[in-house]
Amino acid sequence: KVDHSTAGALEVIEHYGVLGKILAYGIAGHHCGLPDWGSYVDESSLEGRLNKKDLPDYSAYKKEIELPKPEEISFQMKLAPVGQGFSVQFLIRFLYSALVDADFLDTEQALNNEKSSLRENKVSLEDMISTLDTFLKKKCANVPDTRINRTRAEILATCREKAVLNPGFFTLTVPTGGGKTLSSMAFALKHAVTHGMKRIIYVIPYTSIIEQNAAIFREIFGEEKVLEHHSNFTYSSKESMEDETEYDFRLAEKMRLAAENWDMPIVVTTNVQFFESLFAAKSSRCRKLHNIANSVVIIDEAQMIPTGFLYPCIYALVELVTNYNTSVVLCTATQPAINKLLPPEIKPLEIMDKPEELYKAFKRVQVKDIGEITDDELARELLRHEQVLCIVNSKKHARILYEKISGNWAYHLSTRMCPAHRSKILKTIKERLRSGEICRVVSTQLIEAGVDVDFPVVYRSYTGIDSIAQSAGRCNREGLLSEGKVFVFKPEKHGLPAGWLSRTASIGESILRRNEDPLDLKSVSDYFAILYDIEGEKLDKEKIMAEIKEQERMLNFSFRRIAEKFNLIDENTVGIIIPWDDECKKIIEKARWSRLSGKYFRQLQKYTVDVYQSELEEMQRLGLIENVGGMLFILREEVCETSYSMETGLLPCTESMFTRDIFII
Fold first, then answer.
1. Where are the alpha helices (DSSP H) in 362-394?
2. Mean pLDDT of the residues in the chain
3. In the chain, what's the furthest Cα-to-Cα distance?
4. Per DSSP, what are the bridge partners of residue 524?
5. Helices and strands in the chain, H and E counts
6. What is the radius of gyration, based on Cα positions, of the chain?
7. Of 503, 497, 504, the residue nearest 396 (C-alpha)
């Protein structure tokens, strides 16, 4: 109850001067979050608190606590490659993380020893290497001896061989279908053991891939070694696990605790969770940061780092590599051309010896630009093929195209369908493809995100070269044909993307027109170089770096203001629960009668469709939504037939609902 945090901040500044100011941010904010330096008139800012006049007399501490001498205090920053201010504000966050985590853990150990004991983690990364080796040996024994599979084995062997390299900044350029998920994990585990690192952090852009990859890692290593941490996934509390065993509860509680500070050998998380935490101010978000140090961080699909925050994200990775004994691996088939953005002393090392030859070995498609095409012409094209995938840039365009070919063994995929619905449709699609039956699919780009399908022909609306490469990865995936066909087209006006997506599509179009093979490594590099050159200052659209630089000499940082600006996703969405099947309806019924309806949210995740706030409000106005417990928004059963299509998912209340169409994946 006594304001000990302000007192502590005052004392370190008095004792240690400049170094004390670095410590003062964390001490002042260890309960309420890192403060802005601000001004003396703002009582919540650090400067305002340091000028506080009504602090009680705390001088008795000097009889109990002996502070280290100034010469005994040092911070071992090797370099400041991005600038002194960036390195110092980064250090303040990591010191703050260590402080608040220690504070929480000490309190927990004193007041709840049983809970504290669940955090015990006696996992050996050496044993996990052995477990992975056994899994891979068994997996490889059952695959046919094809050229593609032999190349996949070579990729894995190279990753293991290069794992002994010194910690640093790496790229791993592996074509789609090359087995980069398990190969990168093999590199990371051996690299961590070789260099005494503590954990592997696997950072993924989409929740649709993260759930898939986390499930693979749990299958290999076991439930207790893999933490899945993102906004769509919460570990159940004891109250919501009425029918579960004591083991299930202890496991869920262990994982829930690990999500607080990432003290787990393998953490699988999202770009949003990872990068926003590195620029956060709240203790709940910062608490994990010190456990990123001394880790191997794999950035999967590295080209998906949001362009508007590319500079601060890349510089954060540079800082981790330079001063926090962290190895970073940018892992993708389409490496972003970041070398020009990096400080001259940072030179990423490619793990693959000859990525160009790998590309040729996995080249399974021919890409052809067919120019402008109307929806009617495109529909006729699709109906000419018995097995074909068409990927477009918006949910509206996907719905219009699907309606033109529906009834002809056609299927639709978009995030207007709840995950349970999409899973059912995808299962049907895969079965029909395997058995050689007619199968025509119209999808948004969600199918590019780690969905394992194999079509002989793919059509792709104009987009960035990286997305075209992902689309091509769904064509002749297993190399069973001599050559798959990928047709890239310019759609009618309503199918053209807006804003940033329009710029990437325009650059993609120019690369298509002047390169014989728009997907080779040089074309991909040219695409990103042009994109980054055009974007220019927009690579740091919120001016995060300028905010840090402005007051770096005085160490006057705006931690809270930066945290507010650093939002990788512009607008928050709300999940609408669709009463999809009997299982869903039973869970909804339990939620209606529960005092804690929110505890059912995780179970209902696979039945949700994300919508923008404006659409939610319109649905509420029309009486389509039931609100349970103030937390769950449920589509009323009596309107399901008219509001939710079994073919295309949640229908728009008005056509304008599609005008702000951005992929929610």
1. 375-384
2. 90
3. 87
4. none
5. 24, 19
6. 26
7. 497
* Residue 320 reports pLDDT greater than 70: yes
Give the number of other Cβ atoms within 10 Å of residue 305's Cβ: 21
Q: Decide: helix, strand or coil at residue 630.
A: coil
Question: Is there a common fold for 81-108+140-363+524-569 and 364-518?
Answer: yes
CATH topology of domain 364-518: Rossmann fold (3.40.50)
Find all residues with CB under 8 Å of 83, minimum gap 6, and list them.
548, 549, 552
Q: Is 83 left (phi over 0), alpha (psi -120 to 50) or beta?
A: left
The residues with which 232 forms a beta bridge, in sequence order, are none
Contact status, residue 93 vs residue 101, Cβ threshold 8 Å: no
The CATH code for residues 81-108+140-363+524-569 is: 3.40.50.300
At 238 the pLDDT is 47
Contact present, 201 and 296 (Cβ < 8 Å)? yes
CA–CA separation, 631 vs 628, rounded Å?
6
Residues 525 and 435: their CA atoms lie apart, in Å, by: 38
CA torsion, ordered 21, 27, 31, 37, to nearest 10 deg: -10
The secondary element (H helix, E strand) that includes residue 139 is helix 125-141
All structural domains of the chain with their residue ranges? 1-74, 81-108+140-363+524-569, 364-518, 573-661
Q: What single-letter amino acid sits at 171?
A: T
Nearest C-alpha neighbor of 268 from the set 220, 312, 300: 300
**Cβ contacts of residue 183 below 8 Å, gap of 6+?**
152, 155, 156, 159, 172, 174
pLDDT reading at 657 higher than 70: no
Q: How is residue 62 written in tokens?
A: 């000097």
**Which residues are CB-contacts of 301 (< 8 A; sequence separation ≥ 6)?**
204, 205, 206, 209, 331, 332
Q: What is the pLDDT of residues 83-105, one digit of tens each?
A: 999 999 999 999 999 999 999 99
Rounded to two decimals, the pTM is 0.89
Q: Is residue 50 within 8 Å of 9, Cβ to Cβ?
A: yes
pLDDT surpasses 50 at 664 = no
Short-list 621, 655, 623, 630, CA closest to 574: 630
Tokens 């906004």 locate to 231
374-382 long-range contacts, CB within 8 A, separation 24+: 374/492, 375/400, 375/401, 375/404, 375/491, 375/492, 375/495, 376/404, 378/459, 378/489, 378/491, 379/404, 379/405, 381/459, 381/487, 382/410, 382/440, 382/442, 382/459
Report the pLDDT value the prediction gives residue 21, as an integer from 0 to 100: 95
Q: What integer pLDDT is reported at residue 332 of this predicted model?
A: 93
CA 628 to chain centre: 29
For 166, other C-beta atoms within 10 Å of its C-beta total 9
Rounded to whole angstroms, the Cα distance separating 423 from 413 reads 10
Q: Residue 417's Cα: distance from chain center in Å?
A: 21
Q: CB neighbours of 242 closer than 8 A, spacing ≥ 6? A: none
HSE-CB at 408 with a 13 A cutoff on CA atoms is: 18
Q: Inform me whether the pLDDT recorded for 243 exceeds 60.
A: no
pLDDT at 601: 75
Q: Using CB atoms within 10 Å of the CB of residue 75, give its burial: 0 to 12 exposed, 13 to 18 middle, 19+ buried.
A: middle
